From TrEMBL:
Sigma factors are initiation factors that promote the attachment of RNA polymerase to specific initiation sites and are then released. Transmembrane segments: none annotated. NCBIfam families: FliA_WhiG, PRK06986.1, sigma70-ECF. This is RNA polymerase sigma factor. PANTHER family: RNA POLYMERASE SIGMA FACTOR FLIA, SIGMA FACTOR F FLAGELLAR. Residues 1-26 are annotated as: Disordered. It holds the Pfam family Sigma70_r3. It comes from Amycolatopsis umgeniensis. GO terms for molecular function: DNA binding; DNA-directed RNA polymerase activity; sigma factor activity. The keyword DNA-binding applies.
Length: 282
């Protein structure tokens, strides 16, 4: 199992330059590390032991730092990245204990979703969003639902502002405040209005495919794709770059030629509209 290239870079493990012998030596070292990790996984799978688990945690710890950094982008300054990392460690431990190597999945991909989920769960449990902001967010979501049903399309900012009886400038400032409520994994949006769990918890076993799970997954993806397709072009770009290309808000701002603050507003608006549309479909 090889480490995620982005995580490796984030952890500062850049490949050094040099002559052929240096590269060959590094390659051998990489093979040795990979073989050692596979041996640890075999040992842990056959006989779960806390010492072996802790060695796996140490090896994959850079994943936590990477995910915490991504989640922390755009959060209020009072949210300590160190706290996010601490929450992420619990997610990593949970991922190690529940991972099944026999399924043939990459641990890094599985673990990053578990880590992200643990961080988001901890943020939600702290309820660090002001009550007034949550109330406004619910009001805006209900307005989106009403307008969507009335217009049979995604409403514009001007239409939403009129429905809320505020100006467009106030609405955009409102998006900045509601950014605090948009800490959500994209897969969580799929479950909007449903009593289903995380998609991570329903990953199919390649050796025993559940037809019902496959149909549910396909239906979830279809609904999400339909909801995304109804967004404005700029909102679709923001969702695609943030969730599927893993760009930060600052990086998306450079692509679109706007400020990071404006991208944050666009992201919040897109999440609200997706949630409203998926609730409507459900």
């Amino acid at each position: 199992m090889t480490a995620d290239p982005h995580v490796t870079e984030a952890a500062g493990k850049h490949r050094p330059g040099g002559d052929g012998s240096a590269v060959a030596s590094e390659t051998r070292s990489g093979y040795e590390v990979d073989a050692g990790i596979q041996a640890l996984w075999r040992e842990f799978t056959e006989s779960p032991d806390q010492l072996v688990r802790d060695r796996l945690v140490l090896h994959y710890a850079p994943l936590v730092k990477y995910v915490a950094g991504r989640v922390g982008t755009g959060l209020p300054t009072h949210v300590d990245v160190g706290d996010l990392i601490q929450s992420g460690i619990f997610g990593l431990v949970d991922a190690i204990e529940k991972f099944e190597p026999a399924r043939g999945l990459r641990f890094e991909t599985y673990a990053m979703q578990r880590i992200r989920g643990a961080i988001l769960d901890d943020l939600r449990s702290q309820d660090w969003v002001p009550r007034a902001v949550r109330s406004k967010a619910r009001e805006a979501e209900r307005a989106l639902e009403r307008l969507g049903a009335r217009l049979n399309r995604t409403p514009t900012d001007a239409e939403l502002a009129a429905e809320l009886e505020i100006s467009v400038d106030d609405l955009r400032e409102f998006y900045g405040q509601m950014q605090l409520t948009s800490v959500i994994a994209l897969e969580d949006l799929v479950a909007a209005g449903k009593d289903s769990g995380s998609l991570v918890d329903t990953l199919p076993d390649d050796g025993a495919v559940d037809p019902v799970a496959v149909l549910v997954d396909q239906d979830n993806r279809r609904q999400l794709a339909q909801a995304i397709a109804q967004l404005t072009e700029r909102d679709r770009i923001v969702v695609g770059l943030y969730y599927f290309e893993s760009l930060t808000l600052a990086e998306i701002g450079k692509v679109l030629g706007v400020t990071e603050s404006r991208v944050s507003q666009l992201h919040t608006r897109a999440v609200m509209r997706l949630r409203a549309k998926l609730v409507e479909q459900a």
